[in-house]
Each structure stands twice: as structure tokens, then as C-alpha cells.
Amino acid sequence: MSGKAIIFSAPSGSGKTTLVKYLLQHNPDLEFSISATTRPSRGSEVHGKDYYFLSTDEFRKKINNEEFIEWEEVYPDIFYGTLKLEIQRIWDAGKSVVFDVDVKGGINLKSYFGDKGLSIFVKVPSLSHLEKRLRERATDSPESLARRLAKAEHEMSFQDQFDEVLINDNLGDAQQKAQGLYEKFISH
Comparing C-alpha atoms, which of 54, 14, 13, 4 is closest to residue 34? Predict the structure, then answer.
């Protein structure tokens, strides 16, 4: 294992993807780790760019072949995971890898990478603030929204297992804090 890993985790809708995109735009030595999933693509998501979209059977086969660093069944038959080959591809290019994963995935990745990983929990000021963001995103059914909010409340209880907690109540401030955490970690 070589290279470094920066791990952003948060409940859905907390802004972790926006922060990761900001870091990628400003740091050419950083590359996004594309996760594999069995969920259908949303909107303009592209296979091989946003996610590796796999069938449930394909995903299970890769689990059996131990091709994942970590994986999780988030909802019944909805899997997410990090492929070992994806990380090696990025490190072989001489870059550090950045992750945009759920909370359980973040904890598992930090455990895997140890001191070579920086785990950052992105937090919104409140659950009501998160609900407003998710409603404005308008990508979920009412049932899906209710599931996400219940999961978010549970995930907030794991923030103390991360190296850093970044409160995203002002996007510009959160972007600067994320950049500072990245620079400090990479320089050591």
C-alpha cells in the first residue's frame, strides 16, 4: 500500500460531494475514488465517472472474489463498495485518493488505511436543516426521504469516530476548512 487517502463521510445531503468536488478542482494531485453500487443511476450520473453501476449478481461475485476494500448493503439489495483496483489505479498515477462515502464506509476505510487516511465527518447544523436540503434536491420519493432522515439521525452518532468534524453551515467557509485539512494532512 502506498499513497494517502482522504475520506469524506456524512449523512446524505450534508454537502460532502460538493466539498469533494471543490478539493478536486483545486488540487491536481488528488483523484476521486469511484465507488461501485447496485442502485440505479440518478439524473445525469455516468457509469465509470460517478459510480460503477453493477447488477446485484455482479456485486456479490466481486464480494466473493474479495475485490473490495470495503462494502456495505445499505438497503436490501442496494450495495456500495470500494474496489481495490480503483485505489491502486489512482496511486499508480502518483496521486492521493479522495472518497465520498457513507458513514459506515468511512469508518471502514479509516480502519483499512490507518495513518495513511484522514477521515472527515461533514455535519449539517441540524436534522431539520438536512431535511430541507434533501427536499430541495427533489430526487427522492417521500418513503426514500423518510428512510434517509432516519438513517442520518443514526449516522450522526458516529461522528466521534472520525479524525475531524467539519460543520457545513456556510459553503465558502466549509470549502476553506476542507482545503486546510487536506493541505495539513498531505504535508505530513
Answer: 54
Condensed to tens digits (0 to 9), the pLDDT of residues 162-171 reads 999 999 988 9
pLDDT at 32 over 60: yes
Q: What is the pTM of this model?
A: 0.82
CB-based burial label for 69 (10 Å; 0-12, 13-18, 19+):
buried
Taking the C-alpha atoms of residue 122 and residue 167, their distance in angstroms, rounded to an integer, is 6
Asked if residues 81 and 36 have their Cβ atoms less than 8 Å apart, the reply is: yes
User: Which three three-digit cell numbers place residue 63?
Assistant: 464480494
Give pLDDT tens digits for 128-140: 766 676 677 767 6
| Strand 5-9 with 30-32, pairing | unpaired
Separation of alpha carbons 177 and 84, rounded Å: 29
Between the alpha carbon of residue 125 and those of residues 49, 119, 132, the distances in Å are 30, 19, 12
